[in-house]
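S1.2 Input.
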Amino acid sequence: MARIDVLTNVTSDYIKAAANAPTKLQEKNEDFGAVFKAAMGLVNETNDMETLAKSEEIKFALGYSENTHDLAAAMTKAQLALQYTVAVRDRAMTAYKEIMQMQV
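S1.3 Output.
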């Protein structure tokens, strides 16, 4: 938080409180932060599913597991999660490009 009394020698508590109060722009950043956290959670979940699928594949290849159902289920979950993540990314990039082309 910037101190305005250093620049203008204003020491009014009211002005300091107003300067430190959250603005609408800062509130929007908090909303974006929530969306960003959700997106990162999606990426982490997709990564976990990919790791689990690779682990099941290695177990099956080494002969530790004979259950092909677990292998197929893990690989399908990982594939669907990756497709969903890519679709969300593509939509976010499209929205970003549209916003950048807007004229103010």
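S1.4 Remarks. The chain has a mean pLDDT of 80.
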